[in-house]
Design a protein that fits this description.
This protein is an alpha+beta fold. It has a four-stranded antiparallel beta sheet with strand order 3-4-5-6. Strands 1-2 form a two-stranded antiparallel sheet. It is elongated and about 75 Å long. 23% of the residues are buried.
């Protein structure tokens, strides 16, 4: 039989001490080496994720932490405002940042809310409760739920007479599907 590696011959107490000295990315790497290490390494806490956000490893991968779903998510999974100002990395409210899915599913965004995602305006429709870039009228509805609106008309919410801008921003609904890999034609249902 093959002898176990020297590190595995150390007492469990030393393994736990070694693990306590590692940063999050190294804990993850160690956990992937053997079932034994995976079993003794506790799941990361929200505080550990927040601390790891400032590392080169997380910054290079553009990762942010959600406080509801304690994990790393890509920057595209957050409204633009959740990555700026007091919610930015090491911001005073970084611990309260939440991703789009948590914001919609946990009703943290009220129906009718306008959100900017990847520099594009979206609405959480007040009627169908769908997050979409197909903005309808001023009452917080999507184009499909707005009376007298076609689905491809995008943005009468802003008092902007520049029709070229509206046509340029009109979406074919593939934007959300491409960016988020969300099902059902790029729509994120609240329930």
């Amino acid at each position: 039989t093959m002898a176990s590696p020297p590190i595995l011959r150390l007492p469990v107490e030393l393994h736990l001490e070694i693990v306590s000295l590692l940063d999050l990315s190294n804990k993850v790497n160690l956990a992937f080496t053997t079932r034994y290490f995976r079993s003794i390494i506790p799941p990361p806490t929200h505080v550990e994720f927040l601390a790891a956000e400032g590392t080169t490893w997380a910054k290079s991968r553009q990762l942010y932490t959600c406080n509801s779903y304690i994990s790393f998510n890509h920057w595209k999974d957050f409204a633009d405002d959740m990555r700026k100002g007091k919610w930015c990395r090491s911001g005073t409210q970084a611990h309260a940042r939440f991703c789009l899915k948590c914001g919609v599913n946990d009703a943290l965004y009220a129906p009718g809310t306008l959100l900017t995602i990847c520099n594009r305006v979206h609405v959480l429709c007040s009627v169908c409760k769908v997050l979409t870039d197909q903005i309808g009228d001023r009452s917080g509805r999507c184009a499909g739920c707005s009376p007298g609106r076609s689905r491809n008309h995008n943005c009468d919410y802003f008092d902007n007479d520049d029709d070229d801008w509206r046509l340029e921003r009109a979406s074919d609904r593939n934007h959300l599907r491409d960016v988020y890999d969300w099902a059902e034609e790029g729509r994120l249902h609240r329930y």
